[in-house]
Amino acid sequence: MKISPLFHEQEVFDIVLPRVMSWNETSKTFHGLGFRLTDDFVEKMRGDAHLEVWQSEAIATVDFKRADQSVYPDEDDFDSLFYSIFPCTLPEACVRESITLLFDLAAALEGVVQRKGQAVSLHESLAMVVQWGRDLLEETGDVMGSESARILLEMKYQK
Fold first, then answer.
1. Angle at CA 102, nearest 5°, toward 48 and 66?
2. Cα–Cα distance between 107 and 85 in angstroms, integer?
3. What is the pLDDT of residues 11-70, one digit of tens each?
4. Given pLDDT bands bounded at 50, 70 and 90, which one contains residue 89?
5. What gap in Å lies between CA 55 and CA 33, rounded to an integer?
């Protein structure tokens, strides 16, 4: 069954890089921002002490692409990044942190942040977080990262 977009299970941004890059030249940037390489993607784990069992441990995952095809970053060069956030399963503060991290990563790699093919600013992206929170409240009756929002999300998959 298709999940309502108002659940905001996954929200994605692209970071378009200024040139083709390699893992060797970017790994220090990723590690410096707290990402860890896991197989074919990197992820940034939460640093807060209030992780509930129903919440996502990662505040963001990043997949690597070259010419719009997924690649393993330690095996192939890449020209863009596919940055994913999971608002439904994260507290709003973590989602805002993830958006800030998105722009920190883009700045460090001299990339451009895009959403649905259009360049977006940090301010616009943080405004999206507010709207996602409103949508989730309307759809589930609860806030981002809540147990009830996660239960409703899981129920959608069980149908």
1. 130
2. 18
3. 999 999 999 999 999 999 999 999 999 989 999 999 887 888 889 999 999 999 999 999
4. very high
5. 21
Give the SS3 label for residue 22.
Answer: coil
**Is residue 56 classed as helix, strand or coil in its secondary structure?**
coil
Strand 35-38 relative to strand 41-45, pairing: antiparallel
Structural domains present in the chain: 5-158 (3.30.1400.10)
The structure tokens listed for 134 are 């409103």
Outline where the chain has alpha helix (H).
23-32, 92-108, 122-140, 147-158
Please tell me the predicted confidence (pLDDT) of residue 112: 98
Cα-only R_g, the chain: 16
Q: Higher pLDDT residue, 47 or 98?
A: 98
Rounded Cα–Cα distance for residues 87 and 140 (Å) = 13
Residue type, position 119, single letter? A
Q: Residue 150 in contact with residue 88, Cβ under 8 Å?
A: yes
For the cut 90, the answer to whether the pLDDT of residue 81 exceeds it is yes
What secondary structure letter does DSSP report for 5? G
